[in-house]
Design goal:
By secondary structure, this protein is mainly beta. The protein contains no helices and eleven strands. The strands form two sheets. Strands 2, 4, 5, 6, 9, 10 and 11 form a seven-stranded mixed sheet that branches. Strands 1-3-8-7 form a four-stranded antiparallel sheet, with no helix packed on it. Strand 5 and strand 6 form a beta hairpin.
Length: 122
């Protein structure tokens, strides 16, 4: 069982940055691929980024490539999502998830956090 707690969301202006954090419980954190997803009001949840258990491989949605960076520290059981050059369309609840495959598909992830709100004003 893995418990995930996100933090770091907030209200920012377009062009600003936020660093989202996801703290995980459990002793097997390094065995999990970690992903970030987001859900905007009235829309389906969508993939944002993922990182392999070792941190050696990453995968991004085209909409955030070059602006967002996913990273992890297995010693701290933490994964981060650095979000730069934020746009109003990045407004959403951001969720972290733990899974077994580097994938953009939700069913590849077994554990989910409660989410953190990111709001970007124009």
């Amino acid at each position: 069982q893995v418990q995930l707690v996100e933090s770091g969301g907030g209200l920012v202006q377009a062009g600003d940055s936020l660093r989202l954090s996801c703290a995980a419980s459990g002793r097997t954190f390094s065995s999990y691929t970690m992903g970030w997803f987001r859900q905007a009001p009235g829309k389906e949840r969508e993939f944002v980024a993922a990182i392999s258990g070792s941190g050696s491989s990453t995968y991004y949605a085209d909409s955030v490539k070059g602006r967002f960076t996913i990273s992890r520290d297995n010693a701290k059981n933490t994964v981060w999502l650095q979000t730069n050059s934020l746009k109003p369309e990045d407004t959403a609840v951001y969720y972290c998830a733990a899974g077994r495959a580097l994938s953009r598909l939700e069913f590849a992830y077994d554990y989910w956090g409660q989410g953190t709100q990111v709001t970007v004003s124009s």
